[in-house]
Amino acid sequence: MNPFHPKPALPSLPGRVCLVTGGAAGIGLALTRALATAGAHVYVGDNSPSNLERASGNLAQLPGTASVTFAEVDVTDRAALEEWIATVHAARGRIDVLVHNAAYIHWADVDEMSVDQAQLSMRTAYDALVCSVKAVLPLMRAGGGGQIVAMGSAAGRIFVKGPSAAYAAAKAAIEAYSEMLRIELAGSNIGVTLVRPATVVGTDFFKIHVPSARMPRIADFLPATSPEKVAAATVEAIRNGRATVDIPGYLPSFYRAYAMAPGLTRKAAATGGSGRRDYATSRLTAASPTRSEPIRSSGTHQDSIIARALKKAGGNAHFVRVMSYVAPDIDRAAHRLSGGRMLLMPATLPSLMLTTTGRLSGQPRQTPLLCHLEADGSHLVVDTNFGRPPRPAWSHNLLATPRASVTRRGRTLPVTATLLEGTERAAAWNHLVEIWPAYVSFAQRSGRRLRIFRLTPA
């Protein structure tokens, strides 16, 4: 086996023995149901008698030969945790999957949180992971392999105002431990999966522990996910031996944005005050589209959610400033590495890579741009420059040399650029701001009349 590209450890789940800590509510319950539905024998350890009782009733009917066995286990009690794992192994003779989902949540600032509460957060999330892994590793080795799944969080990767320091620290520790464990186990038949959800709505996390107003305002603009979606992605990762699961899918772009401009990202996250969305409900969208803001997307429900989020965020000056520094470089790198098949935005707002001839250098210049695809195959592009006063270089380049090329979804076409004027420009402008109202704020901030070009296939 190639240690750098481990093969999937568990392509088939029927009959496998799976441990799930914190598996009686929220994401944990969804994971328990998903694993059992896939045919696994699931053993749930949870410290809440009421959650265990409700979960037992919810999962009374299961397909096939799958089973779920519940036990009251306090994962911060190492002896009790190890005894539970040993009992399951004695009953089944193997442990195939460990999913450590247990967490202690007390969402408060450092001044408002006791040392005991902060330490309990670490003991439940991180220390219990260490103890669980220590207990199952020899059992998995003896059984020929397995998969260890650790529930991290985007809060352990991006540090902005909103999440509690203790929670973020515990999730960051889980991430570091999981990454190092994967390195140590490379070449073995034991895989390690780190799951990093963003905002997961409709769970006790928000119903009981975290007021929605505690969330940063920027979260209102971003797609949320559900326990069921997290569970489905996790089960698929177990089957495929996937190392990392980020859900929703926009998270890697935010990680790159934070790595490149952490200060600006924090500033953008702090803009607008507290969140205004009800995260306790199971509704995934921040707001419904209105008649004045029709959705243009590549066709999926998730695409339209992200498109609405970006429309709103486009009117936020700090968000735009962050993206102006980060998005072009990310898009150029993604375009280069994917052979022109991928940009940061194409699944949300239509985008392309424009290649012009430098007005002064005479050399090819690439610029990722939002675009609107017209019925005849032409593209409309606008020289917003993220609302900055100077015109972007590509705009000057097109005026000097209208011949250019565009790359979209891996296909490159030669085009000829035409600067729109008069009634033609007015019609195009009205249509563009209908698709993305942020164009208006770009024009206001720039203090200039934005140029609109039509790129017609040559």
UniProtKB/TrEMBL annotation:
Entry-linked Pfam families: adh_short (PF00106), F420H2_quin_red (PF04075)
Keywords, in A-Z order: NADP, Oxidoreductase
UniProt entry tagged with the keyword Kinase: no
Family, similarity comment: Belongs to the short-chain dehydrogenases/reductases (SDR) family.
Ketoreductase domain span: 16-193
Entry-linked InterPro entries: F420H2_quin_Rdtase, KR_dom, NAD(P)-bd_dom_sf, Sc_DH/Rdtase_CS, SDR_fam, Split_barrel_FMN-bd
Keyword Oxidoreductase: yes
Protein's UniProt name: Deazaflavin-dependent oxidoreductase, nitroreductase family
Region (Disordered): 269-301
CDD domains per the UniProt record, alphabetical: SDR_c
Record lineage: Bacteria, Bacillati, Actinomycetota, Actinomycetes, Kitasatosporales
GO-annotated molecular function: oxidoreductase activity
Skewed-composition ranges (Polar residues): 282-301
PANTHER family: DEHYDROGENASE_REDUCTASE SDR FAMILY PROTEIN 7-LIKE, RETINOL DEHYDROGENASE-RELATED
